[in-house]
Amino acid sequence: KRAVSLLVLGIAAATATTTLFAQEVNHENHQIAPATAPLPAAAATVQNSALTYTRDIAPLFQNNCETCHRPGEGTPFSMTNYASVKPWAASIKRAVAAKRMPPWFEDGTTKKFENHRALAKADIDKIVEWVDAGAPMGDMKDMPKPRNFTQGWTIPKPDISFQLPKPFAIPATGTMEYQYVIIPTGLTKDTWVQHIEAAPTDRSVVHHIVAYVRTPGSTYFKNAPYNTFFTAKEAKNFPDRHPDMVPDRGKDKTTAKAQAPAGDVRSGWLVGYAPGQAPDVYKNGQAKLIPAG
């Protein structure tokens, strides 16, 4: 069993032909904009609530929100203390009442998912009542101990790590397209991995990372250079490109070829990252195969 980790996705020996294929940074054509301002606070409409932030609400935020809403993450505000939460109380109420936060897109017909993260109705009602009561702070002696978060890797110390070839500069404003990079693994034998993590060096500006294993013989971005950032538009200049320019985008209408070859990128998902997403950790007896080059 080996634990392969990805530090914003990086490089290994440049001689292997098994490669990691990464899509990194923001949504394609994603508009970068300043953080959304909080909704204006409304007058208290509940007069007899006993709920307080320190005793009742902070534990909910610790267990359900702080994974993303804390300093250094890519969220517009922190939820680790009352001073940073209070201005956003009305926005928090709207988001949890609409079930937009915490993000969980399962349709509600099953609770069989081990990583189920939707708030219980009782917890939603508690947050709504607290905000409607004016979002009172309460007594600091009721405040739970701060939650400790691991910096860097959250999996055990990795056996192998890969790093992007160079830092990628993100502009303060404007439009960004997907950034692609192909990274040789250097693996000389088939390797089974049990812990896999993509860990950005600056989580406050990375929207998501998607990493695939490009197997030997793959034609996906066949002639793209290694360890070099490029966009899908730039990849059109690479000869013999794969007809499906972006994974899971479907058939390219300019060619009769509709499916990737067996074992190509389309079935080679390795790991992903988005704010709050946990690393992939397989149970004992389970693992992910990365083939040799």
Rg calculated over all Cα atoms: 22 Å
Estimate the global geometry from the Cα principal axes: elongated
* Largest beta-sheet characterization: 5 strands, mixed
Distance between the termini: 19 Å
- Average the pLDDT over all residues and give the rounded result: 77
Uncertain parts? 1-34, 241-265
Share of helical residues: 10-25%
- Please report the number of helical segments: 5
How are helices and strands ordered from N to C? Answer: EEEHHHHEEEEEHEEE
- Share of β-strand residues: 15-25%
Task: Explain how this protein is built.
The protein is an alpha+beta fold and 293 residues long. The chain has 5 helices and 11 strands; from the N terminus they run βββααααβββββαβββ. The longest helix has 12 residues, at 53-64. It is elongated.
How would you sum up this structure in a few lines?
This protein is an alpha+beta fold and 293 residues long. It has five helices and eleven strands.
Which tags fit this structure?
293 residues, alpha+beta, 5-stranded mixed β-sheet, 4-stranded antiparallel β-sheet, 5 helices, disordered N terminus
Itemize the secondary structure elements and their pairings.
Blueprint: E1 2-7, E2 19-25, E3 30-32, H1 53-64, H2 82-85, H3 89-97, H4 121-132, E4 160-163, E5 174-176, E6 179-184, E7 191-198, E8 208-214, H5 232-235, E9 269-273, E10 280-281, E11 288-290
Parallel strand pairs: 1-4, 1-7
Antiparallel strand pairs: 2-6, 2-8, 3-5, 7-10, 7-11, 8-9
Helix pairs in contact: 1-4, 3-4
